User: Fold this.
Amino acid sequence: MKNRFLLACLAMVSMISPGPAQEVAAPARAVLILDASGSMWGKIDGRAKIDIARAAITQIIEGLDPRLHLGLMVYGHRKRGDCADIEMLIQPGPVDKAAFIKTMNAILPKGRTPLTGSLVQAAQILKNTEQKATVILVSDGIETCDQDPCVAVKELESLGIDFTAHVVGFDLGSDEQDAIRCIAETTGGEFLAASDSSTLLNALATAMVKTADPEAPAPAPIPLPAPAPEPPPPAPKAEVEIANVTLLTVLAEGGEAVTSFFTITAEGKPEIVARGSGGSYKLAPGKYQVKATWGSAAVTENITVPAEPESKFTLVYNAGILRLQALASEGGEKVKAFFTISRAGKDLKGNRPRVTAGSGNEFQLPAGEYHVLAKWGKSQAEDIFEVTPGEVTEGELIANAGVLKLTASPVAGGEQVKAFYTILDAAAKLDGSRQQISSGTGSEHQIPAGRYLIRAKWGEVTGETEAEVQAGEATKAHVLVPGGVLNVTPKDAAGTVVKTYTTIYSAKTNLEGKRTRITAGSVTSFILPAGEYSLEAKIGTQTVSIEAVVKAGEASSVVLQAK
Assistant:
């Protein structure tokens, strides 16, 4: 039977239907990039990661709303050691669910992990539309093809390719997560960690919801459906051959029962007898091991099922709930932060063992002390909290941060342009360098309170200004990038427009009589600082040159005409 909870959660992806007076929203468009590198044959709890991914994606696709247009890209599935092994198997569009699942199930992991190449290809495919586009990347490893995906997505942003990337890090260590987290952060997406089938399913559901509505909250966790139980081991001769066993879990002795996921095995045998989130099971009399999980809390007990019609067992977690909220400033507005929860005590290397993480505000944890790190944009706050068995612990973290809203224009009061911003600490170090706080083409940045130097780059034009961010407040800053657009039309001797490579130099020469090279390219439009320039291009066998003047906030045109 289909999981009703899953279907209800994925219904959020359908995007709430507008009223009769409103236009119907265009379908959300996305490309799912699936890692099919050789490491996907690695196992989690005895099951290959590729099989776990296939099962989770199948559940997502079966409950997918038809108004979400989805494509499928895969890398590493055809050749070993080939960094160009990237293929768009299904173009973004209305989903044929049966065909999508069949195509995905035929994928066999073999090769390397060309993260950067797949992101660039997906972004190029999605850019040919006016609609917001999204990439959902599922990977169990970091880049293995000598490229930097973090630099690549920044370059795509600077080229005006507007897309959001949600990154699902599947079975990654903390260092590996940090290595690809920047892909999501740079594009305004979510980084979602997954360590098993349950967390992978929830991560994919969250990514789909965010694709349809970036402002939507993450869906509630989706419990995995219970598979058909394997045949139980032969029952000993007894008065009752099959007993009805009820399993209960409580946070503390005498506390209220909570819903858990159970895995039951016969004593001394690895095969699973039964599993699921229900509390009642048919078991033959005998000895069993029962493992129950609730969030990040787990308890394992050995039980003996007697030869009686009914039996009941209660497992005690010795756990509680940690309910967190992050504030921009003391007593200020709540903000949506990403929480990383670790054990409070450090190991011999000075590290805290990580327990769980997520952007939700409620975590189920074993009793004990925990270190909580809350990240909101580029700001963060941390504190220690104690979880008590059977109780809810309220935790509040103060980010001491605000929002910096940036705009740029060539002239004061002129038309705004899309620039690439770099936000630096206003105070320089002893060597004259400044710490970089944030960067990107986004106009809003959540950063700690303080004074900053903002640099904006628009084509070959740069400008800078300073701004002070107050905790809990939005600060606006405008950067002048005094430049204009120079349109270049190259023509051959017959007057036909041709494609050529144009080099732009400064008009003035230096003491050696040489001009400074500003930029070059085969494009026909250049963004340049206001000033005078000398252009040079080879058309046919001729080298053609011309002078040009660029004015701030204006577009000018020149013709490179061969004779």
